[in-house]
Design brief:
The complex is a heterodimer of chains A (557) and B (276).
Chain A: H1 12-23, E1 28-32, E2 42-44, E3 51-55, H2 59-75, H3 87-108, H4 112-116, H5 130-142, H6 151-160, H7 172-188, H8 239-245, E4 272-280, E5 285-296, H9 304-313, H10 319-324, E6 332-333, H11 341-352, E7 362-363, E8 372-379, H12 394-411, E9 415-423, E10 429-435, H13 444-451, H14 461-470, E11 475-483, H15 495-511, E12 515-521, H16 527-530, E13 538-541, H17 546-556
Parallel strand pairs in A: 1-3, 5-10, 8-9, 8-11, 11-12, 12-13
Antiparallel strand pairs in A: 2-3, 4-5, 6-7, 9-10
Helix pairs in contact in A: 2-3, 3-5, 3-7, 5-6, 12-17, 14-15
Chain B: H1 30-39, E1 44-47, H2 54-65, E2 69-73, H3 80-84, E3 85-90, E4 93-98, H4 100-107, E5 110-114, H5 121-124, H6 128-131, E6 136-139, E7 144-147, E8 153-158, H7 171-174, E9 178-181, H8 187-198, H9 202-216, H10 229-240, H11 245-257, H12 261-274
Parallel strand pairs in B: 1-8, 1-9, 2-5, 5-8
Antiparallel strand pairs in B: 3-4, 6-7
Helix pairs in contact in B: 8-9, 8-10, 9-10, 9-12, 10-11, 11-12
Classes of the chains: A alpha/beta (557), B alpha/beta (276).
Amino acid sequence: MPASPESALPGGRPLGIYLDALWSVQPRLTTLATQDDRPRAVLSRAGTRPVLHLPADNALLTRARAAHAAAHLVYGDAPQPRAKLKQIQRVLLETLEDARVEWLAMRDLPGLRSLWAPFHIAGPDDGNGFDALLVRLAHALFDPAHADGHAWIAKVRRLFFTADGTLALDTPQRLREAASLLGNDIGQMRLNFNAAGWRVEPAYRDDNHHLWIADDKLPPSATPLEREDADSHGSGDDDNAVTAERPPPQATGSADQGEGAATALWSEAPLRVLKYPEWDRLITRLRPDWCTVIESRPLEVDATALRARLRAQVRRPPAAQRRSAGRPNSGRERDGEVLHTDALIEAGIALRTRTRPPSRLYRAAHATDSGRDLLLLIDASASTAQPCADGRPLLEHLRDAALLAAHALEREAHIVRVWAFASDTRHRVRVQHLKDEHDGALDARVCARAAGLRSHGSTRIGAALRHAAAHARGERPLIVLLTDGEPHDIDVHDPRYLLEDVKKAVGEARRAGVTVQCLHVGPAAPSALRHAFDAGRCVAVDPRHIIDVLLSGLRRG
Amino acid sequence: MKLHDPVAPDDALADWRIRDEPWYAPVGGEIAAFEAAHARGLPLMLKGPTGCGKTRFVEHMAWRLGLPLITVACHEDLSAGDLIGRFLLDAGGTRWQDGPLTRAVRFGAICYLDELVEARADTTVLIHPLTDARRQLPLAATGELLHAHPDFRLVVSYNPGYHGVHKTLKASTRQRFTALEFGYPDPAREAAIVMHESGVVEVIAKQLVTLAERTRRLAGDVLDEGASTRMLIHAGLLIAEGLAPHAACLQAIAVPLSDDPEVAQALVAMVDACIA
């Protein structure tokens, strides 16, 4: 999938998890760059995926803002036309709507009250101007126990709540009527409203522009937002979102222009060119010889630093394992299935001579799971250029983890290969060999190739898997796919097409005796991709833990 | 169904008999399903996420049927010897010691292999001859061919969720079992279970269930599994002991669920939101 040109909100992952878990909403979180000394969050619901622009602030205020925005997303209604509502009435409607969605959110999640309550501090001391009344109203509607004493605020409360404390204004129409009515009250009270200096209060509430249908005649907002275009590392939970969020940049016929148009990045000399079929879900058939896989090796670049770093990271075997080798007790355990003959003889002698018998009487169980044929297949598409939390691109994490895992697994007598793949239409699915079975994982040449690996192109997983499965050999072959996204290519517009092809490719591999697993690395959930793999064979992994998951899983078999 | 026999003094399985009824709130037809499998001597697999009540159900059924229950928690180093038995050495020479499975087969008990998939593959195949019409357990070490006691039953549990990419049950094992699917109870029933088991009031129980339900949305992505009913009961017990609900949820739910600092941060915020 294509890389996103935007950077997400720093520290946004916990907040994203929080919103997803509590409300099943996945807005894109970005930092709001603003000079405003009283900035407010901006929620945009214009695209297929909401975007929440958050001013840089402390964690609690940021969380309060995010929770409030989520309440809008979950309990809010469609944007309304501004028509005929005066500015005062609109601000009143916004205040009522803020209170309404928060009331509903707190009904479901009572702990939210203590998140928002510290921001509601307005009371009679703030004065009786319209601005002050609005803030006092917000407080009074937020906290029914709060005593304000102003007659108009008491009136709004009576309108807003029923006698038994539930919401009276429960439809957009009722809310609008109430705002209209209350606006007239303000007019009769001869209160002025300075719209230019007005900011929604309290500070955690967003600017509410999303409540209104966009009006092109209005002057542009003073708050500079970053580009609100579609996001490419979206969760892709529903098919429509996938389609809309990934406008193929070359979606017209020019993308499908055959094998002649090689770009500079495809200049490595091909080792072999092979054709593979692809599943077309619409005709429910394999299209024969549909995808062209080009095998190559990445250009070798200087990898002194990479090699030194990888060698420094090579894990030493656990101390217990090191100690046991070459000791008299080696091969013996306290517990086991088969008695150790020498140990028994020693024990028998010890019993007869009334000395202390050895405690390890059993033969140690040996790891029998060795000699497997393992292929680590790295997704090297453009999206893997995105930096991870530590600032390094994801591709580097994938590459390093694959090489370190290969190194460790080779020491356990497995046969390990490391390949990378990326695609640029069905005519060019590039599979690069970083390490083949006769290379050592940390050899200078392997590291030089690994260092030359670049993020580029798209993610045609099915073709790469078929190629990998066709070259599986040896004992219980296993392909482990390391990817950050879902299948995607610029000549495919149907988001389900490549997913179904992956599923078919996995099934074909399974029937050929090849197990395929997927480690999904990165911010988005592998929701759709998971269904393409056999149950439990696609797991989400944090970039820092790739190596542990690879090793622990493979060792357990 | 067997009545609750008084325990004979020479009962080899006395320690494994359940005297008091383990409390269990049925969610569907699982009691009838278990009894039918029992009546026909069919092995049973209980599938479902951790902490949703599988083990409690087996205990309850063992009590109901008046059978001793021998439970083995399977793990990746569980060897054949651990299940079947092994020779031990004492002053006089070697002595055979029955393992838990052998004991259940010899004297007639429900053998419950908890999380069977965690056991090594070579261990799992041991149960194969016990699960078909043969109902035999060959003891290679002693040369004995053990015919299962009429009361012997095999029950295994299996959590398909979190074993990740590397573990599933082999078809040859899987197809020997009849299976019951377990899930978390619906919110009202789960709250009732938490109230019964921990003694917290309904308001608190409902908040705990809300929190659990929200964490379960993260299962498979950032969490292996969401908070289990067992975790909620633990939180409830801490609250009943006098701990503040918020602190209890951190201790019993948020902190145990994840080691990832970012996920932990999100979980703490979720506790804040769900617990008043």
